[in-house]
Each structure stands twice: as structure tokens, then as C-alpha cells.
């Protein structure tokens, strides 16, 4: 079972970026936690981050046929990117959308997600634990 975990713009600065909203864990901490849980769940994961919308689109395209699921935190592209939605619409594995913060509790412009139109599940407001919940959900769906 191969799972791609994608992180969008500014998540490279997790831990120092608005820690009151996003917490103290770095993206490396999140990756390490995902690697540990993946081992337990017998999943193989590929954990990536990009500040570039096109690069995220390319990675989603390349995941077709090679992976069983994608966990994606599209960050700000959640609210703007038809291109990421279109790429996910060509992907036939399980897609779980993750947001560290509860986007529905925040500014109005964060309430709409293009990606949710494709996601099989959405996790928001559970902090970085959301990534682990997403992996558990994918493992559950794959059986
Ligand atoms: C985020 C929420 C987005 O609105 C924001 O632009 C982010 C992170 C989250 O994980 O809570 O960069 O996706």
C-alpha cells in the first residue's frame, strides 16, 4: 500500500509559522510521526511539501497508478486551486483532505475548499494529529 502525503505552501515553516494557530510541531516532526504510524499500519508513505501549485499538480498526476491514496493539506491552495481539484479528479485512489486548523472557525475566505469537491474525507481542526487520523482512515478503507 503506497500513500502520498502532500503539503502545500508555507507548511515548510510549520513550527515557526503562527504557532498559536498551527502549533509547535515542525513539518519534519509531522513526517516522523507519519512514518511511525505508517510502519504500524503496513503502509508505505512518500511525504512531500511544495510552495508551487504546478509542482503539486504534477505530483498528483504522477501518483496515478502508483499509489492507493493521497493525504493532502493544500494549505492556501485549498481556497483557490481549480488546478489541484482537476488533478485530483483524474486520480482514482482514496483522497483525504487535512487542515491543521478548523478552517470553518476562521475567516470567511477559508470556509470554501475546492478540494473538498473531490475528497473522500475531510479532517480539520485536529492539529497535526489530523495527518495520523487520515492515515488510519485510508488503512481502514483499504481494509
Ligand atoms: C491550512 C488552512 C489554510 O486556510 C491555510 O492557508 C494554510 C493551512 C491548515 O492546515 O489549517 O496554509 O490548510
UniProtKB/TrEMBL annotation:
Active site residues of this protein: 22, 99
Pfam families assigned to the protein according to its UniProt record, in alphabetical order: DHquinase_II
Ligand binding (substrate): 73, 79, 86, 100-101, 110
Pathway: Metabolic intermediate biosynthesis; chorismate biosynthesis; chorismate from D-erythrose 4-phosphate and phosphoenolpyruvate: step 3/7
Name this protein carries in UniProt: 3-dehydroquinate dehydratase
UniProt organism field: Lutimaribacter saemankumensis
Site entry (Transition state stabilizer), positions: 17
EC number in record: 4.2.1.10
Gene it is expressed from: aroQ
Keywords assigned by UniProt, alphabetized: Amino-acid biosynthesis, Aromatic amino acid biosynthesis, Lyase
Family per record: Belongs to the type-II 3-dehydroquinase family.
GO terms of biological process kind: amino acid biosynthetic process; aromatic amino acid family biosynthetic process; chorismate biosynthetic process; quinate catabolic process
Chemical reaction(s) catalysed: 3-dehydroquinate = 3-dehydroshikimate + H2O
Subunit structure: Homododecamer.
A GO molecular function held by the record: 3-dehydroquinate dehydratase activity
Superkingdom, taxonomy of origin: Bacteria
NCBIfam families found in the cross-reference section: aroQ, PRK05395.1-2, PRK05395.1-3, PRK05395.1-4
Function text: Catalyzes a trans-dehydration via an enolate intermediate.
Amino acid at each position: 500500500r503506497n500513500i502520498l502525503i502532500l503539503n502545500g505552501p508555507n507548511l515548510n515553516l510549520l513550527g515557526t509559522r503562527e504557532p498559536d494557530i498551527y502549533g509547535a510541531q515542525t513539518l519534519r516532526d509531522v513526517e516522523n510521526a507519519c512514518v511511525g504510524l505508517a510502519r504500524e499500519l503496513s503502509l508505505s508513505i512518500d511525504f512531500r511539501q511544495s510552495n508551487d501549485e504546478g509542482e503539486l499538480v504534477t505530483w498528483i498526476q504522477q501518483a496515478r497508478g502508483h499509489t492507493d491514496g493521497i493525504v493532502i493539506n493544500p494549505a492556501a491552495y485549498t481556497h483557490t486551486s481549480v488546478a489541484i481539484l482537476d488533478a485530483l479528479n483524474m486520480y482514482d485512489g482514496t483522497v483525504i483532505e487535512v487542515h491543521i486548523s478548523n478552517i470553518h472557525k476562521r475567516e470567511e475566505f477559508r470556509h470554501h475548499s475546492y478540494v473538498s469537491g473531490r475528497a473522500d474525507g475531510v479532517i480539520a481542526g485536529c492539529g497535526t494529529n489530523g495527518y495520523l487520523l487520515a492515515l488510519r482512515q485510508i488503512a481502514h478503507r483499504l481494509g
